[in-house]
Structure formats: structure tokens, C-alpha cells
Amino acid sequence: MPVPAGRFLMGTEDPRGYPSDGEGPVHEVELDAFEISKFSVTNDQFSSFVEATGHRSTAEECGDSFVFGGLLPDDFPPTRGVAAAPWWRQVEGASWQHPEGPQSDLAGRGDHPVVHVSWIDAMAYCEWSGTRLPTEAEWERAARGGVDSHHFPWGDELTPDGVHRSNVFQGSFPSLDSGDDGWIGTAPVHTFEPNGFGLHNMTGNVWEWCSDWFDPTYYARSPRESPSGPAKGSAKVTRGGSYLCHESYCWRYRVDSRSANTPDSTTGNTGFRVVTAAT
User: Fold this and answer.
1) CB of 266 closer than 8 Å to CB of 60
2) Fewer C-beta within 10 Å: the chain N or C terminus?
């Protein structure tokens, strides 16, 4: 989908946010026109890439990946958890083809976003498809849909008039996801109304990799024209939040929030979408 050249206000200084993530200061950014995929890359699309190239994902090479415990069967064998986030379970055999471990598959999920893909995997897909990952600034410009100064593409309320506009965690995190938005875990990439640029699920569903290295101090010195992030770092930017975001602990399902992970990290709630030059 085309995103026209223009200026926008990037970031937020909302005190309810996460200053340690470097969400501010709000600053003006000017970008050239570009095109970004309407949807996150799907399981079907990633499967075509793997069939064409023989690519083995980072999770497959490592032999495991991280799965939200609430998606595992009740009788699933004990697994190692993450100390600071015990709802994440290190599951042997979890990968993009087996999102909840070896007992799971992609049946009925061809149009869901591919997950358990590292930044490295996303870059390999881009090389094959003749695309690239968006810069963080491009991602936010696209996610806002042409509207500045709101937390979501549609405004500042998560569910305006009680209508769900994204796939995030409802209920009591992490013990109970009520699925009031219609989904527990990932949703098809075309779910919910598109934003002003015709893009779906720019908030919620899955985190999306960006090309930039992450630095929480970057916004204070970011160039105004076409910023591409710091020259180096240890983690890559992720944007948009996921089906696991809940206001009680992770109010990062906003267009102005940001997070990061190491390039070789894989989880069941991280995917990507791609960019090409404007035509």
C-alpha cells in the first residue's frame, strides 16, 4: 500500500507510557514516499519462501522457541520459564511451522501472521522477495494512517463505542484471556478495519521487526529527514504490540510505543511486514 511523502509527529510524551523505552520527545520527521505491505507476512507466504530457498529458521536451528504458556495444552510437559516473565515457556520443537510446539501445526492458519521468526529470518525473506524491513520512522508513519498525535490509528480509545479494533489481551493477564475481540493467540492478518492508509493490524496481533537498531536515547538526536536509527546496537526495534499486550503490564499496543529484541530472538508473538520503493 502506498504511503505518501510527508511530515508527521513521531513519538509520545504521555506520562502513562514508558520513558525508559525512549518514547519521546515528540519530534517532527519527514519521509519520502514508500510502499508497505497491507498485511503482516503470513504463514503461507513464509512457507513459499522456505520451499523456494530451503531456509531453516533461527528457531529450527536452535531447536526451541518461546511460547505463551496460556496457549499450551493443560497436559503439556513442564518447560523452563523466563524468570522475569514466567508466562513465557521455552518449548523444544516450537517454530514457525509448529507455533505451540511439535504437537501443533499450521492447519487453518495459513492467513495468520508467521511467528517464531527472528530478525535474521525476516531479513532473509526480504532478500528473497526483493523487499526490505521498514525503518522505525516508516513503520510509525504507516501505522498512524495519516493522523498525528493519537495512540491508535483510530484515536485514543482502545475500543471506541465498545468496538474492538485490534487483537490484544482481554481479561486478567496472564491467567485468563477472555478473547472478547474474537481471538486468543494470533488472528488472521485481514482481521479488523484497516487504517487510513489501508493497512491492517498495525496495533496488536504480533510485534513487527523494523530495520533499526534500538537506542532509548535516539529520539533526542534523531535527524529530521528519513531517520534510520543508530549506527550500531545489540537489539533491533519491534513495533505494534501483540495479542499478549494488556494495559496492566504492557501498554505497548500503541502506534507511538516501541520495544526491542536481539536479532536472533524468536517468540510466538513476533512477525514482520515488508516495504518497497514507491512506484
Assistant:
1) no
2) C
For 80, phi then psi, to 5°, come to -75, 135
Q: Give the global pTM.
A: 0.97
Q: In the chain, how many domains are there? A: 1
Taking the C-alpha atoms of residue 191 and residue 215, their distance in angstroms, rounded to an integer, is: 32
CATH code, 221: 3.90.1580.10
> Within a domain: residue 241?
yes
The Cα–Cα gap between 67 and 88 comes to 6
Query: Would residue 216 count as lying in a domain?
Result: yes
Angle, in degrees to the nearest 10, between helices 43-53 and 119-129 = 70
| pLDDT band of 77, cuts 50, 70, 90 | confident
The residue segments making up the domain with residue 197 are: 2-46+111-277
Instruction: Output Rg (C-alpha) for the chain, integer angstroms.
Output: 18
